[in-house]
């Protein structure tokens, strides 16, 4: 097989890249180890920045997002028994949409297939070759047969555990940055009406909690937990007791309970691998960087990487120039580091660190009080959250 771009991974980064390239007349083949049903059912992100919505809309895959997604103009910070609203739209002129990542994936997969795009699901033994040369190729197995794609470029969009980052040909000089947090998030899906019109990010001595939503009948809730804990240790009753304790406040607001139909624990890390290009191999999305989910940035960063990479590839095929591609890593990393900073800040601000001194706990509370008291600080938070720049 031959294609201009071989894309490893059918997550948001790989599928969007394939679609944006197609719109510019550039061919690609997407390889994915999992099945279509599996990627379309995996519950992950929920918050789309305005810039992400704009990219999806401009690419013609935003119709269902606009119809079924919920536009949120603000969110609440809860601490010390009170709630304080961050007026995203009032402070920045921008809003966010809560629309599940797997619905974005469904929209992208159907757009690719409708345009006769090639996505090969359930491939195995994916290996990258000669990526330091102008004739890279990828080998893999599909339907039991050994296959090969020859390409001009390879895009590594295969997430944190993929094969692309280890295949970067500059291993000796690469620089990785990492921070692993001493906690994780326990996430649940619940059949109930929303408890709140907007997301609630809650700081509490017992640990962080987050009230999010998926639809008028399905809610998404998270709470800080031990990353080594087991889902089986958490009965439904124990989960509700913990959420009530962390979300309790003095204004009579009550969390609505319902049938819990999904439970999972995710670990939390900050990670950046640099540079994001070596030879003809380009990394995008979680393959190159991870943020803790507190700032809701992961999916949005994958989209912004892909936007930058598409511009470079278009320049190459239109004007036979690699100038824009050569600046891909530098351009993408500027936004990535700022999002890393925001995600770390939100994580620090809202989680309970077991080893924090009483002084550090008071500093955390004072920082929240400062945001609640200062429109300037609230604006800075809102600008980062909506991705205003
Ligand atoms: P992925 O989605 O990981 O996709 C990579 C794909 O590559 C996968 O389908 C994988 O199966 C495939 N693959 C792996 N190895 C290979 C291989 N060898 N060959 C071929 N294919 C391979 N982000 C936000 O912006 N907002 C949020 O609200 C948010 N909330 C989150 C909540 C949770 C619980 C979690 C876990 C994440 C959240 N994120 C959020 C982060 C977001 O989900 C990720 O950043 C996003 O999925 C990154 O997309 P990606 O395409 O780079 O990688
Ligand atoms: C969701 C996930 C996040 O990481 C976040 O900050 C807000 C919402 C969600 O899955 O709904």
TrEMBL record:
Q: What is this protein called?
A: 4-hydroxybenzoate 3-monooxygenase
Per the UniProt record, the lineage of the source organism begins with: Bacteria, Pseudomonadati, Pseudomonadota, Betaproteobacteria, Burkholderiales
Q: Which GO terms describe its molecular function?
A: 4-hydroxybenzoate 3-monooxygenase activity; FAD binding
Which keywords, in A-to-Z order, does the entry hold?
Answer: FAD, Flavoprotein, Monooxygenase, Oxidoreductase
Record's Pfam families?
FAD_binding_3 (PF01494)
Q: What class of enzyme is it?
A: oxidoreductase
Record InterPro entries? FAD-bd, FAD/NAD-bd_sf, RIFMO-like
Q: According to the UniProt entry, what is the EC number of this protein? A: 1.14.13.2
Q: Note the SUPFAM superfamilies from the entry.
A: FAD-linked reductases, C-terminal domain (SSF54373), FAD/NAD(P)-binding domain (SSF51905)
């Amino acid at each position: 097989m031959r294609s201009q771009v071989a894309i490893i991974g059918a997550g948001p980064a790989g599928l969007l890249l394939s679609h944006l390239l197609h719109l510019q007349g550039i061919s690609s083949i997407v390889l994915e180890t999992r099945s279509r049903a599996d990627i379309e059912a995996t519950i992950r992100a929920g918050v789309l920045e305005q810039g992400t919505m704009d990219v999806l809309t401009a690419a013609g895959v935003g119709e269902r997002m606009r119809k079924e997604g919920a536009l949120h103009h603000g969110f609440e910070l809860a601490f010390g028994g009170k709630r304080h609203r961050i007026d995203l739209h009032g402070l920045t002129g921008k809003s966010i949409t809560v629309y599940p990542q797997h619905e974005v994936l469904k929209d992208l997969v159907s757009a690719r297939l409708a345009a006769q795009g090639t996505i090969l699901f359930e491939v195995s033994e994916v290996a990258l070759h000669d990526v330091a040369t102008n004739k890279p190729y990828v080998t893999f197995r599909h339907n039991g047969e050994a296959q090969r794609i020859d390409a001009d470029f390879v895009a590594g969009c295969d997430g944190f555990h993929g094969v692309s980052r280890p295949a970067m040909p500059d291993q000796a000089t690469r620089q990785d940055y990492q921070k692993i947090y001493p906690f994780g998030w326990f996430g649940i899906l619940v059949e109930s009406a929303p408890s709140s019109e907007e997301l609630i990010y809650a700081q509490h001595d017992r640990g962080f909690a987050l009230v999010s939503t998926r639809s008028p009948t399905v809610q998404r809730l998270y709470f800080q937990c031990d990353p080594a804990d087991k889902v089986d240790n958490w009965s439904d009753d124990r989960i509700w007791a913990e959420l009530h304790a962390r979300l309790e406040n003095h204004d009579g607001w009550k969390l609505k309970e319902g049938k819990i139909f999904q439970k999972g624990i995710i670990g939390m890390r900050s990670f950046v691998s640099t540079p994001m290009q070596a030879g003809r191999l380009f990394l995008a999305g979680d393959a190159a960087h991870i943020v803790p989910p507190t700032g809701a940035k992961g999916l949005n960063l994958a989209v912004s990487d892909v936007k930058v990479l598409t511009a470079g590839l278009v320049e190459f095929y239109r004007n036979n120039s690699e100038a824009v591609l050569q600046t891909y890593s530098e351009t993408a990393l500027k936004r990535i580091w700022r999002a890393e900073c925001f995600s770390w800040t939100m994580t620090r601000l809202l989680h309970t660190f077991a080893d924090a001194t009483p002084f550090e706990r008071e500093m955390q509370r004072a920082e929240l009080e400062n945001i609640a008291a200062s429109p300037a600080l609230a604006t800075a938070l809102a600008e980062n959250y909506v991705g205003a720049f």
